Amino acid sequence: MVKLVPATWTTAFVAAGDQVVFMGAFFRNIFRSGFEWNEFLRQSYIIGYKSLSLVGITGFILGFVLTLQSEPTMREFGATSFVPSMVTISVIREIGPVIIALICAGKISSSIGAELGSMKVSEQIDAMEVSGANPVQYLVVTRILACIIMIPLLTLMADALAMMGGFAASNMNNHLTATLYFSKAFSALRFGDLIPAVAKTIFFGFAIGFVGCFKGYNSERGTESVGVAANSAVVSASLWIIVLDAIAVQLTSVFAYN
Among the residues of the chain, which ranges form H helices? Predict the structure, then answer.
């Protein structure tokens, strides 16, 4: 007797196939003529500049809190001098990129999903196709590329502010000078620590932009689907960030020890 594939697995395979087709359309439209530079710059402004305050506050508080939580434990072992380097390495290697990517997933991916979902519901995307425009190139390519470029820049800014937050927390208890703190912070940091961290934020940016565009572009009819697209975009983007981070950590450890 032939066993039929369960409906849940069939739905998962269909969804995966739709995402592959959508990704193929994205890569095909990157190199087509008539790239929408104005829309790309506008999306870079919205995704990058309008997220500066949220990302900056998050980064500063991240370094501040991590330093305050680490100092009592390190003091018990007489290793308070290692707190600046420990916080810097932790933030730049792992905590900073993941936390900032999750923050951006909640803000950016949901807004992209809601925006494209509302355009789908109001048939604006269909009108673009009828008029001869390329909605994938105008709506999808510009947003994903803006995320790929802006998310690493936002992460680097958050890392710098996290170090400032760590200095503020250390200065409250130990009264360290800025020169001494940052010399200790950079003493254990290597340039090779920065490359994998920046590289994975590029993939985080792609996941955030791709998931938001896919969920919004393929949303169903009806006003309720706009909220569903925004919510599912956040959940899926956050899950992809965790999965990509786990893969990046494994690859980094393999290349580091071989």
Answer: 7-30, 37-48, 52-76, 83-90, 96-104, 110-121, 124-130, 135, 142-173, 178-187, 191-217, 224-256
